[in-house]
Design brief:
Blueprint: H1 13-67, E1 70-72, E2 74-75, E3 78-79, E4 84-89, E5 92-99, E6 102-111, E7 114-122, E8 129-134, E9 144-150, E10 164-169
């Protein structure tokens, strides 16, 4: 009798289990990589949006301060202090300060004995605080304002990479700042 040759086609159960285990590991690595890259992308997008909002706030703030003729002590319940400043501009009274966690610029108009809000613009810059300093001890005599905005730390608690300082000069007696 001649020798029998058997040909086997297919794969065995242990091979199937090895392929399945390898597939699970590869899919898990792909999922983790996708999630991490999504988080990095989201964080980068958020930082870019904060930077754009900060740049817009800086332009609007500088425009408001340069157009102002003087610092007012207050307007209604909006006193000038280290968190907000009230300015007299050709377009009316403007208050600059924090609205919750966002810097904001408010337009105010005299309404009889009080003030009414004419416009509000908030800037989502991710700020925690804003301090305002005058170049003189008396706010109404100030000619230059310094706004120091503190943002959340990027990595470590003492990280100051998100802090910004904006310096702007007021228009004095119609002259350019």
């Amino acid at each position: 009798m001649k020798g029998r040759i058997t040909e086997t086609y297919g794969i065995t159960l242990p091979e199937i289990l090895v392929y399945a285990a390898l597939s699970v590991v590869v899919l898990n690595l792909c999922t983790v990589t996708f999630i991490q890259s999504s988080r990095f992308s989201t964080a980068a997008t958020q930082r870019a949006l904060h930077q754009q909002a900060l740049a817009q706030f800086s332009r609007d703030l500088t425009r408001a301060v340069h157009g102002a003729s003087r610092v007012l002590e207050g307007a209604g319940d909006t006193p000038t202090n280290d968190r907000q400043v009230v300015l007299e501009t050709p377009d009316g009274v403007v208050a600059i300060g924090m609205a919750g966690a966002s810097p904001a610029i408010w337009g105010l108009a005299q309404d009889g004995d009080g003030w009414r809000l004419t416009r509000v613009k908030r800037y989502a810059v991710g700020a925690r605080t804003m301090q305002i300093a005058f170049d003189t001890p008396i706010a109404s005599e100030a000619r230059q304002l310094t706004f120091h905005i503190t943002g959340p730390p990027r990595k470590e608690p003492d990280d100051t990479g998100n802090n910004r300082t904006i310096v702007a000069a007021l228009r004095v007696d119609g002259a350019l700042p």
